[in-house]
Specification:
Blueprint lengths: L14 H5 L6 H24 L15 E7 L8 E7 L4 E8 L1 H22 L5 E8 L21 H20 L5 E5 L17 H16 L4 E5 L5 E6 L2 E6 L12 H14 L3 E4 L6 E5 L3 E5 L8 H5 L10 E9 L6 E6 L2
Parallel strand pairs: 1-4, 4-5, 5-6, 8-9, 9-11
Antiparallel strand pairs: 1-12, 2-3, 7-8, 10-11, 12-13
C-alpha cells in the first residue's frame, strides 16, 4: 500500500512494474512530457547550430549500384510476452519475446544481414554507397493508446537513448563498409506524448537529431543525414530515381491488393510523381508494383504481435522475426533485386 498516493498494488511479480506508473493525473503527465520534449528540442537546436551539417555527396559510378536498407517500427520501449507449452517443464511458461535489448540486437542483426546480401550480390554488382531509410516509430511513445504503460518499459527519454545508441552503431558499421552512407528518415505516429500531438513534438525527430549530433561529434565525413521535420513523408532521389518515403499510418495496410488500396496508391503516384516508394506502420511486409510499374515496399517490424492481433483474429505464430528490406538500386532500375531479411 502506497500511503502517499493512497493506492494499493498487487503483491506479485508485476508489482514493481506497476509501482513505476505515475500516480499523477493524465493531464499532469501530458504537460510534463510536452515540456520535456520542448526542452530537449531546444537543447538539440542549440547544439546543432554550433556545428556544420552532415553532408556527403553520393558516389554513383556508371554501371555500379547502391544498396538500400529499409528499417522501421522498432518500437523501443515495448515489451511483448508470449505464453507457450514447454515439453521440458511440462506446463505453460511465459517468456519475454520482445524488449529493448532484443530490439537493439535486431537492428545490429539487420546491419549484418545487409552486409551479407551485399557480399552475396557482389558477383553481379559493385556497390558504391548505401541508403538507410528510417520509417519512424523508433520509440513506441507514451499514451498513444489506453493503458499503453502496461506494455512498455522505460520513459520517453529511455526510448530515445536506446534508439540513438542502436542507430548510431548501425550507421557507424555501414560507414566503415561503404564510400558514403545516405540516411533518410520520417517520423512515425507512435513517437508522441499523446495521439493528437503535432509532428513537431515527435520523439522520432529527437532521436534523429541526437543521432545527427553524435555523428557530427564523432567526425564522420562520409555520412549524409536528412529527415522530414514538417511533413510525415520525405521525397528524395537515389541514383536519379525519385523516392517517396512515408510512415504509412494514413494509408491502408495493403498496397496493391484491394481496389481501395490500389486507388490510394495510384493517387500517391499522381501526387508525388515518384519512381519507387516505401511505407511502414502496419508491420506487414510486402513488395508490389503499382500499375505494374512503380515498386512499393511495405516494411516489417521486428516486434512480434502480442494479444491485440490475437483478439482480432490475426495471431502471430511466427518462429523467426522479420527485420527489414535490403535491395539494390542501379542506374537502369530503381529496384534491381530485394531480400526480406529476418533474424536467421
Amino acid at each position: 500500500y502506497d500511503r502517499e498516493a493512497n493506492v494499493w498494488f498487487l503483491a506479485d511479480e508485476r508489482s514493481g512494474r506497476l509501482r513505476n506508473i505515475s500516480t499523477e493525473t493524465k493531464q499532469q503527465i501530458t504537460r510534463e512530457v510536452s515540456e520535456w520534449v520542448e526542452e530537449e528540442q531546444a537543447t538539440l537546436f542549440r547544439r546543432l547550430r554550433r556545428t556544420e551539417p552532415l553532408k556527403a555527396d553520393p558516389v554513383e559510378r556508371d554501371g555500379h549500384e547502391s544498396l538500400g536498407i529499409i528499417l522501421g517500427d522498432t518500437h523501443f520501449g515495448d515489451v511483448v510476452e508470449k505464453e507457450y507449452w514447454s515439453d521440458e517443464d511440462g506446463e505453460y511458461v511465459t517468456q519475454e519475446v520482445f524488449n529493448p535489448e532484443i530490439t537493439a540486437d535486431c537492428i545490429a542483426r539487420l546491419g549484418e544481414k545487409a552486409l551479407y546480401f551485399r557480399d552475396l550480390m557482389s558477383s553481379v554488382a559493385t556497390f558504391d554507397d548505401v541508403y538507410l531509410f528510417l520509417l519512424g516509430d523508433i520509440g513506441t511513445g507514451n499514451e498513444v493508446y489506453e493503458r499503453q504503460h502496461v506494455d512498455t518499459r522505460g520513459t520517453l527519454r529511455d526510448q530515445i537513448e536506446w534508439g540513438v545508441s542502436a542507430l548510431f552503431q548501425l550507421i557507424r558499421t555501414l560507414a566503415e563498409e561503404f564510400e558514403t552512407v545516405q540516411v533518410r528518415g520520417v517520423p512515425g505516429n507512435h513517437g508522441t506524448d499523446k495521439p493528437s500531438a503535432a509532428i513537431g513534438v515527435n520523439t522520432d525527430l529527437i532521436t534523429y537529431s541526437w543521432v545527427d549530433d553524435r555523428l557530427r561529434d564523432s567526425g564522420f565525413d562520409n555520412v549524409d543525414l536528412r529527415y522530414s521535420e514538417t511533413h510525415e513523408y520525405l521525397n528524395t532521389t537515389v541514383r536519379g530515381w525519385r523516392c517517396h518515403i512515408r510512415h504509412g499510418h494514413d494509408e491502408l495496410e495493403h498496397v496493391d491488393e484491394t481496389a481501395a488500396s490500389s486507388r490510394d496508391w495510384r493517387g500517391l503516384v499522381d501526387e508525388f510523381d515518384f519512381d519507387f516508394s516505401m511505407k511502414g506502420h502496419h508491420h506487414s511486409p510486402s513488395f508490389h508494383k503499382v500499375m505494374n510499374k512503380y515498386p512499393v515496399f511495405a516494411a516489417p517490424s521486428p516486434k512480434p504481435g502480442g494479444e491485440f492481433p490475437s483478439r482480432i483474429g490475426k495471431p502471430d505464430v511466427s518462429k523467426h522475426r522479420d527485420l527489414g528490406w535490403v535491395f539494390g538500386i542501379s542506374d537502369d532500375r530503381p529496384v534491381t533485386w530485394q531480400f526480406l531479411a529476418d533474424e536467421r
